[in-house]
Amino acid sequence: MSQTRTTLITGGNSGIGEALAKKLIDEGQRVVSVGLEKPDWTHDLLTAYRADLTSLEETRAIAEEICRDHAVDCLVHNAGIILPNLLADARPEDILTLAQLHLGAPMLLTQAAMEGMRSRRFGRIVFVSSRAAMGAATRSAYSATKAGVHGMARTWALELASSGITVNVVAPGPILTDNFWGVVPKDSEQQERMARNVPVGRLGTREDVAHAISFFLDERSDFVTGQVLYVCGGTSLAGLSP
């Protein structure tokens, strides 16, 4: 992005969101982070808020506060949780929780930011989804809501295209983050086995995903909207064994 923009990142305090925040700040961009925790670092270009995005009321309130105080040009909805369970143990209420986090929260944030984006004739909305949207064992609630992200993003892409706003999705495969290690023990044989099963021969890094997101945020990417980019080392083609 050549012009200085403000990017709102959900979950900007850790993992992919933190990597993206630092990348944008290194490029001279302003970043607003919102999540359960504030980043453990500070910068003149960083503003941070705390909110539980699984709460409809908290999300609505923080969306209004952020968009009152900041001209949000770009929104990256990165916050997410997995809640893994095989079908026999899956809980329907998990679907409701993840639907609010993965779908309801970005809807409220986008609604709050949309007027400003339209008035400036510029906006970038990027969802961080998952290769699991294509299906993955133990991911009933997660894969269902992430697949829903793809449909919602395409719908918004059509609705917002005439306003200069693009909407795209980055769908990572196995990425070395706390979310990943919450399911797969860090540096375990299972992690090594998964790495060997990725077609490119390694697991992804948060910087891999941040790089892909930054493409969609770029002002020069205005002819790309409604797309899903799998950043997955080829696992969207070949699958991934646990």
From TrEMBL:
<dbReference type="InterPro" id="IPR036291">
    <property type="entry name" value="NAD(P)-bd_dom_sf"/>
</dbReference>
<comment type="similarity">
    <text>Belongs to the short-chain dehydrogenases/reductases (SDR) family.</text>
</comment>
<protein>
    <submittedName>
        <fullName>SDR family oxidoreductase</fullName>
    </submittedName>
</protein>
<dbReference type="Pfam" id="PF13561">
    <property type="entry name" value="adh_short_C2"/>
</dbReference>
<dbReference type="InterPro" id="IPR020904">
    <property type="entry name" value="Sc_DH/Rdtase_CS"/>
</dbReference>
<dbReference type="InterPro" id="IPR002347">
    <property type="entry name" value="SDR_fam"/>
</dbReference>
